[in-house]
Design a protein that fits this description.
Elements (H helix, E strand, L loop, with lengths): L2 E4 L6 E7 L4 E6 L4 E6 L9 E4 L4 E6 L4 E6 L2 E6 L5 E6 L6 E8 L5 E7 L7 E6 L5 E8 L2 E6 L5 E6 L4 E8 L2 E12 L6 E7 L5 E6 L3 E5 L5 E6 L5 E7 L5 E6 L6 H6 L6 E5 L14 H4 L1
Antiparallel strand pairs: 1-24, 2-3, 3-4, 4-5, 6-7, 7-8, 8-9, 10-11, 11-12, 12-13, 14-15, 15-16, 16-17, 18-19, 19-20, 20-21, 22-23, 23-24
């Protein structure tokens, strides 16, 4: 398996995104309040473009050829990757000890995002969605570190990891409604190496998930059976997403957060970003469509 490495020193690489309209990859360093973009064809050839952000950005969605929607600790914003202009679309009233975390586009056209404590102490996070009219709805409460947040190809099942509890859950998703009473444990990693973090689904219904502390991205079948592994030279892979010209590349972020000097010396590629071509395509993620009033 050929693993391409983009050497970086990310404190907390997160929120990877394939921007199909730009044929580029985007991702965050949450701790550094920065966003990176790199053309697919230039991966490992040149350094990514760095965008210094005036907020803590954690998750994003494609809006158009130049813009992305970003969930931040203060607001949902529209960010222009060309001009670097920031437009606040909707303020968030999160307590000072909270920030946003994972996010993803739902099959209903809503952008789903989560909140968590900056220093997690319990099940105090939530999962929200925002629609094209910028109306926010809270769906799930009582979760520690919400991650993954993806839907299967039939748009009938929602996957949600709680890295705090080291588990991944599934919920039935019918008629654009999340059925909380259908919650089931899909992965229980409490007795296994690695904590489920960010992930992505392929067209066969398999979940590819970064295992924080597990040195790998693992692929699990719809029934939770281990199907494949991508071993990595870092202990803290943090998230992954599908993309590339045929949707068969997996971008993987990692982190140096909480690592000792000795650990960084042992794993010097920690905080780098990796690109792997696999033999299956990921589920295509829709763009976020804002009302024309907000785009102009």
């Amino acid at each position: 398996m050929n693993i391409q490495t983009q050497p970086m020193n990310l404190g907390l690489g997160e929120g990877p995104l394939w921007h199909a309209l730009r044929k580029s990859w985007c991702w965050f360093d949450i701790l550094d309040q920065s966003l990176y973009e790199l053309e697919h064809k230039r991966f490992c050839i040149t350094n990514p473009t760095k965008h210094d952000l005036p907020f803590i950005g954690t998750a994003m969605a494609v809006v158009d050829a130049s813009s992305v929607l970003i969930a931040t600790d203060k607001a949902i914003v529209l960010y222009d990757l060309d001009t670097r202009d920031v437009r606040i679309l909707c303020s968030l009233s999160l307590p000072k000890n909270m920030r946003t975390n994972e996010g993803g586009m739902g099959p209903d056209g809503r952008f789903w995002f989560s909140s968590m404590e900056k220093i997690p102490s319990g099940l105090n996070g939530s999962v929200f969605s925002i629609n094209h009219k910028l109306e926010i709805e809270e769906h799930i409460t009582g979760i520690g570190i919400p991650n993954t947040m993806v839907w299967n190809l039939e748009a009938k099942k929602f996957y949600l990891s709680d890295s705090y509890q080291e588990k991944t859950y599934t919920f039935e998703y019918l008629h654009n409604n999340l059925l909380l009473e259908t919650k089931e444990t899909y992965l229980d990693m409490t007795e296994r190496a690695g904590t489920p973090d960010g992930g992505a689904l392929d067209v066969n219904g398999n979940l590819w998930v970064a295992l924080w502390g597990g040195h790998k991205v693992a692929c699990f079948s719809p029934n939770g059976e281990l199907m494949n592994e991508i071993p990595l030279p870092v202990p803290q892979p943090s998230s992954c997403c599908f993309g590339g010209p045929e949707g068969k590349h997996l971008l993987i972020t990692s982190a140096r957060e909480s690592m000792s000097e000795d650990a960084v010396e042992e794993y010097p590629q920690s905080g780098s970003t990796f690109l792997v071509e696999v033999d299956v395509a990921g589920i295509e993620v829709p763009n976020f469509k804002l009302d024309a009033h907000y785009v102009s």
